[in-house]
Amino acid sequence: PTYTHNAESEPVSQTVHEPEAEYFHDWRSSEIKTYVEKHPGCAKQQAISDLSDAGVSRALNRIDQHPDVIDIDERLYVKESIYGFDEAAEVISDALESLFAANGGYTSAHELYQTVQVKLDDFFYDNDAFESERQVFDIAAYIFGKMRYRGKTYVFRGNIHIWREQPDYPMADAGLLIHWARLNGGILTRQLGYDNLERRGAMGPGK
Fold it and tell me: What is the side-by-side strand order in the sheet with 69-72?
């Protein structure tokens, strides 16, 4: 998912997806959370099928927008079912702040994973489920999307890219080359640019 809300633009208590806010107050909201609580780590497509059969209309949208449901690599959890979640959120938050400061407001799933891997070793072990770059990216996207951790939201794109705020350049490889050129006084060779992309694990088709 891509989250593009500015960190200071909305109060913490405000629901990000206002048009769907009523979903969180009817029986369907409770039905979705109860289902995921009973089936932690269930495949998202299976949950959509089961909930649709149970009479929950627009199950995909309701799952994606439910504030308590976390989609981690196409598997669903509620925060309470993840051991050590709050501690992991703090580690990820601190890592992102540090990486943004070092990289002009940008980082990647690869850099984030490399930064938090050791500190989250117990978290990975205790949950026996989360240990890949994609999974850490999805957890971060939830923390700074629906959860609005510490009142902040960041921009996540393509399971690779993370920005502190919406950039003023294209959210693709070419845009990142522009970004690094700016950080280097407007000068950046092709080799240095692509070395940056490769080191950050930010290379990818269409990214």
Answer: 42-43, 75-78, 69-72
Longest alpha-carbon distance in the chain: 59
Q: What gap in Å lies between CA 44 and CA 73, rounded to an integer?
A: 9
Predicted pLDDT of residue 24: 41
Q: pTM for this one? A: 0.79
pLDDT of 83-104, one tens digit each? Answer: 999 999 999 999 999 999 988 8
CA distance 123 to 114: 15
In sequence order, the 6+-apart residues with CB closer than 8 A to the CB of 93 are: 143, 144, 149, 150, 152
CB 109 within 8 A of CB 43: no
In the prediction, which pLDDT does 87 show?
Answer: 96
- List residues bridging with 70 in a β-sheet: 77
CA-CA distance, 9 to 204, in Å (whole number)?
A: 31
d(CA 61, CA 29) in angstroms, rounded, equals 11
Give the bridge partners for 161, in sequence order: 108, 157
Provide the residue type at 203 as one letter: M
- Pair type for strands 161-163 and 155-157: antiparallel
